[in-house]
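User: I'm preparing a small set of examples for a lab meeting where we compare how different chains pack in three dimensions. I only have the primary sequence for this one, and I'd like the structure in token form so I can line it up with the others. Please keep the answer compact; I'll paste it straight into my notes.
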Amino acid sequence: MKAFVTTASAAALLLLATGGVSQGQPAADAPCAGQIHANPGFEHGTTGWTAGPRIVVFGDATRPAHTGHAYAAFAGLDVTRGDLLRTTVTVPANCDLTVRFWVRTTTTETSRGDYLNVGMAVTGIPPKTRFSLAFDGGAQWRQYSMSTGTATTERTATVSFVASETAGNGATAFDVDDATFTLS
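Assistant: Understood. Below is the structure token output for the 184-residue chain.
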């Protein structure tokens, strides 16, 4: 009987020390943590993205991706046209979404005429262009970042990359890679 009391006492102390009985289920991920886009680096083509007909996803040994082997290219053709690449994600209540992406610009342009406008539209907030990048962005990958802020309700966030090119002023190609969507 004494052994039973000692074992029962030890079990009671263990319950008090750990705060209860384990149910054998793994702890759920916090709702405001982690990367939420399934294809941030375009490694699976345009899966998870809406892409215009001139958006090309490829890897090129002479122009490598920022990471991995693929990136989205708004190919510069020195013609008047526009291209669109966008995606929509759900932002849980009380979470902030930070979008980080890398852009590289290759150009023969000598004056501003070709642009890559990056915008974000969040439920309840008017759409806004966050970045307007031109030919002078540079041939090296550069990182940009934008955030939604928090709200007490679930929202959607649509991120758009819109390239605009004007004919006769030189060709500009904008490459986008590693567009991460991280909750905090």
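A couple of notes for your slides: The radius of gyration is 24 Å. The mean pLDDT is 83.

User: Perfect, thanks.
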